[in-house]
histidine kinase (Vreelandella halophila), 526 residues
Amino acid sequence: MPVTSIFPRLFKGPAARRWLIVSMGVALLVAVGELLIWQFDANHRAETEKELLSQLVDARALMEAEISEGLYITIGLASFIQSQNGQPDYGEIESWMAALFGQTRHLRNIGIAPDNRITAVFPKKGNQDVVGVAYRDLPDQWDSVETAMRTGEAKLVGPVDLVQGGRGLIYRRPVFVDDEYWGMISTVMKFDSVIAVIERFMETHSGVYELVRLTSEGNETIAGQLEVGKPAVNQSLEVTLPGDLRWRMIMRERIDASSLWVARSALWGLSLIFGVVGWHWWRSSQMARELQARSVAERTEFIHTVSHELRTPLTSIRGAVGLLEKQYAEDPKAASLFNLANRNLIRIQSLVDDVLDIVRLDAARMDLNLELEQLPELVQQAVENNEHLAGQDELVLRCEIECDAADVNVRVDRQRFLQIMDNLLSNAIKFSDPGQVIRVGIQRRWDWAQVLVIDEGTGIPASFRDQIFDRFARADSSDKRRNQSGTGLGLSLVRELVFAMEGDIAVESEQGQGTTVRVRLPLAGT
């Protein structure tokens, strides 16, 4: 029988046609279900990759910041030597270094070598034997020293095994005075100490990491270790440091395949009911995920860019200005200019910090360290921190604690709570007149602790009260005597931080009669 005559018989009659429709429908729904499962797996991998990339960006920024600690101290020391025309006061440098070594975590030692002979080393204890040593007598170091002399560029090498034990990073910076080579500054940082900070950061995140040194001869693992032979998602970022030192940071997170089988079973069972609806849902959710991924990526890149391109250079500039201010302290005109520069640097850094905090809060990436704290002690510290600022404007800061609030405990992030109080007190001081009193009170109301900041200043115009917590909102003022400097981010940031600590905030004000700000926080048990 011809084949062409068989197919019409197979699909003759209503039953056959219904079977065909059902079969095609089931096949279509199964295909859609499999597509959704594939998309689920792809989305899961994409989300994992995005999270790993976000963690890598933060880890890289943390590593660069930790290493930069030693680099900028070296840059500041080189600038100081140049400002002294190559005749530095080693006693002054020693006292400066003593203070710095007490505040830094990763410095092992710093050596100063005029004419390539080590003349001074800090700290002296345990390093006396290197004083008087010439780099020319050290064949394993002379090549890198000579390269730095020739190119005039600083060079970071490592990690290398240290004679004292452990591994270290060595940062060598040539110093030129009046375009003539003066000598070399060598800073040794504890590599294992830097890696310990990174590993503590990694412990709070998923996945494992590996740090690889990239060289022309090949790659070498210098920290961490990845698992092999298991399904996983990988992400990597290159870390570029001074002197063409190149590292690659890699993170890997395992993929649990069993979840795919569960999803496949569920989708197959529901495919007949939710096939079409599921397809449309997938399409809309896919677009939402793409928009969310783009937004998170942009915020992550913004945080890294601002942190790396603004905060780190600002810290270096402030250090240099501080050294110059100290050097010219006896010159009133120069001291006034350096003081003005320092105040403006602090203002710029505060602005950068506020913007970064807003971005972190929007991206839900601000980690608050909520701990049990005594509220009266925190408020008293905030008042003491701002007494000098109030005193400059001839204002009085007064702390008033009700009897039943003397032992109130709350669960807050200490640093962020002080940031909230600094913002509120700064506003109260800015809009008060000399001789007025700013009262800071603590009250206990049922299961809440209430902090009040009450001033007798100009108050808030009625037309602006509904906007005080808006970002970049600033009230117009007819009083030109007042310094209205600011970005309008302060109260917006305060409200977001209070909400993040499960509290709330309210403002009461009448123009010309002062302002009262109430911050409420839930009481915590002891």
Q: What stands out?
A: Residues 1-11, 274-282 have pLDDT under 50 and may be disordered. The chain is about 50% helix and 25% strand. The CA atoms of residues 178 and 464 lie 57 Å apart. The longest strand covers residues 167-177.
